[in-house]
Amino acid sequence: ILTTLDALGMQSQRKDPKNAIKYFEEYYNTSGDDVAKQAYAYSQIGAAWYYAEDLKQSTEYYFKALDLLSGVEDHSLLARIYNNIGWNLQLEEDFNIAIDYFKKSEEHATLIKNKPFLAGILNNLGVAYKNTDDYASALTMYEKAYRINQELESLSGQISNLINISILSFKLKQYNKSA
């Protein structure tokens, strides 16, 4: 039943987030004493609230998931939750705290050696640094993400990183460094 609820929730998360919340609440309620599954349900409810454009509720559920994971070493789920909290905080223009959460996400993604996700986190960190006018740190993050995307042969990731580097270079009026 958990697999079905998860599939239904994931299927409706973007198009019908309120319905997805119901599926993930049911997932939570049927997960028994499995803390990791309960935390996963809360993280998915947080994502659904994000798609419903309610950042406050979204962040609240991500923190509920973190509370459940206290003492649990699910680095994959922790990386996703910390990244999502950072993203929400960035959207709320709380860039310095967002940076802290992106760094926590980076630590966990590094532990599980999930390079595609790590590249995305580093890019998010770069955006947050850029928004605090810490251009040197932003450039460092974009370049790290670019190197990972080169290694992965991810053309879309490389293009995204190069666009961010170019924007940053333009902002700094260092046109010759964006080539």
Task: Report on the architecture of this protein.
With 179 residues, the chain is mainly alpha-helical. It is built from nine helices and no strands. The protein has helices at residues 2-12, 17-30, 35-51, 55-68, 75-91, 95-112, 115-131, 135-151, 155-172. The longest helix has 18 residues, at 95-112. The protein is elongated.
SSE layout and pairing:
Blueprint: H1 2-12, H2 17-30, H3 35-51, H4 55-68, H5 75-91, H6 95-112, H7 115-131, H8 135-151, H9 155-172
SSE arrangement, N to C = HHHHHHHHH
The general outline is: elongated
The number of E-state strands comes to 0
Strand content: under 5%
Mean pLDDT: 93
Q: Helix segment count? A: 9
User: How far is it from the N-terminal to the C-terminal residue, by CA?
Assistant: 53 Å
Structural class: mainly alpha
Percent range for helical residues? Answer: over 70%
Summarize this structure briefly:
The protein is mainly alpha-helical and 179 residues long. The protein has nine helices and no strands. Helix 2 packs antiparallel against helix 3, helix 3 runs parallel beside helix 5 and helix 6 runs antiparallel to helix 7.
Describe this protein with a few key phrases.
single chain, 179 residues, mainly alpha, elongated
